[in-house]
Amino acid sequence: MKNETDRNPHRLYLSPPHLSGQETARLAEALASNYIAPVGPQLEAFERAFAAQVGLPYTLALSSGTAALHLAFRALGVGPGDIVFCSTLTFIASIAPAVQLGATPVFIDADATSWCMDPDVLGLALAEAAAHGRLPKAVVAVDLYGQSCDMHRIVAACHAYGVPVIEDAAEALGATYQGAPVGQRADLTVYSFNGNKIITTSGGGMLASRDGSLVEKCRFWSTQARDPAPHYQHTELGYNYRLSNLLAAVGCAQLAVLGDRVAARREIYQRYVALFADLPGVACMPEAAYGVSSHWLTVLLLDPVLGIPPEQLRLALEVENMEARPVWKPMHLQPVFAACAVWTARGLSAGGRPSPHDAGPTNKRSEAVADRLFRQGLCLPSGSAMTAADQARVIQVIRRIVGGSSVRRR
Ligand SMILES: *Cc1c(COP(=O)(O)O)cnc(C)c1O
Question: 384: domain range?
Answer without folding.
Answer: 259-329+370-409
